[in-house]
Amino acid sequence: MFIIVILIYSVVFLYDFLPLYKQKEWKEFIVNACLGLVSFTIALLLSFNLKIPSPEAPIREIITSIFGK
Amino acid sequence: MGKELITDKEAICLLMLFTMGSTLILGVGSDAKNDAWLAVIAGLLMSLPVILIYSRLLSIFPGKDLFEILDMTLGRLLGKLVALIYIWYAFHLGALVLRNFGEFMVTMTMPETPIFVPMLGLGLLCVFAVRLGIEEIGRISAYLLPVLMIILLIVLGLAIPQFELTNLKPVLGKGLGPVINGGFSAFSFPFAESAILLGAFFCLKTKKSPFKVYTLAILFAGTLIMVLTIRNISLLGQLTSKLYFPSYVAVSRISVGDFIQRIEVTVSIIFVVGAFAKSSICLLVASRGIQRIFKLKDYRKVVIQLGSLMVLLSYIVYDTTMMMQYWAFKVYRYYAFPMQVIFPVIIWIIAEAKKNKSKPAGKKAPANE
Predict the structure, then answer these.
(1) CB 3.0–4.6 Å: which of B116, B132, B188, B209 could bond B204 by disulfide?
(2) How far apart are CA B328 and CA B112, in angstroms?
(3) Interface of A with B in 38-67 (CB under 8 A)
(4) Residue B361 pLDDT > 60
(5) Domain locations in chain B?
(6) Any idea where the domains of chain A sit in the sequence?
(7) What is the pLDDT of residues A22-66, one digit of tens each?
């Protein structure tokens, strides 16, 4: 499964990053690389069947602690 | 790059689709049980002042989007901080809409498909749409909204023979409390979510169009949601508030002369278009925010990465459908309240104060000439 993830992400990276690299738009390149690395990491972890903590739990806990259930 | 412009009609259609998007399928104001249609009216009335504040903000700063307004009113540092909160809100809302769509597909229409597939499909579509720009999203919504209206009206007409209006009784049977409670839920779930559109309506033509766009679209969408809620309640009765997707079940009950049956696929069509419009606007606003914060040249360059992140977030955000329901109707209204009401009101007060300060100077200038 993780091979598919790596393949898809390498295609996307080629499509998305080569033009930025060629036009020397470094700011866009860095922002894009940060976002891409985060999403690639999450996708890779998901492909290993790991459970990733959802951001909804802390928000829900804070709100239910203030306003009650 | 040329400036993007959309006409008022396209903007109205966009905002209507945005408002109706996931509401049509999840239902609204389930706290109020059979008074849910009154809750929609209450939510509409509650949202009108907020809507006027949004449109006033847009008309004070014509041609500017939310993030520029934040920079101009709150200053650089605080403006960026609030902008980050808005980016997160838009991004999270887009992921939630994708998740709603995925849950709907998996529980109702395609139970054997993994939930990731429909969400990935819709996410890809959103990425394509946002890369084309807001003009194209506006045009496609102006094209699709009449089609959806026709479908909705035909289905409504077919449903009328099976209406049991006694299901609506007793009106206000448990007093005003549940109606106000449901009204708050309706306020935050579809109507005041249009705060997101502050980040996308930089492209309106004139100074007056924000008022027209916001009031007309919210009134139309509110009326439609009310009519459809009445339809659901009078078809399903007490069941309405117990179902995850009441519209789908209500429409599946329609049968005209044992011949026209199983027309619930129309609900899916409407939901696909609504979810597409809503999550693509959210993606657009989030990527514009990132463009503004990091001072990039074009928001289109971060869309692919942000879109893939959005799909992944929508995959991990809930474990079960129950959690989604709990979130949508119990948690979401408090979570979204700062972004929908508190920040816009603060920005609006500061903007008016700044405008009044600069007005005398502005009046002096022509006198000196």
Answers:
(1) B209
(2) 25
(3) 38-39, 42-43, 46, 52, 54-56, 59-60, 63-64, 66-67
(4) no
(5) 8-353
(6) 2-67
(7) 888 888 899 999 999 999 999 999 999 888 888 888 888 888 888
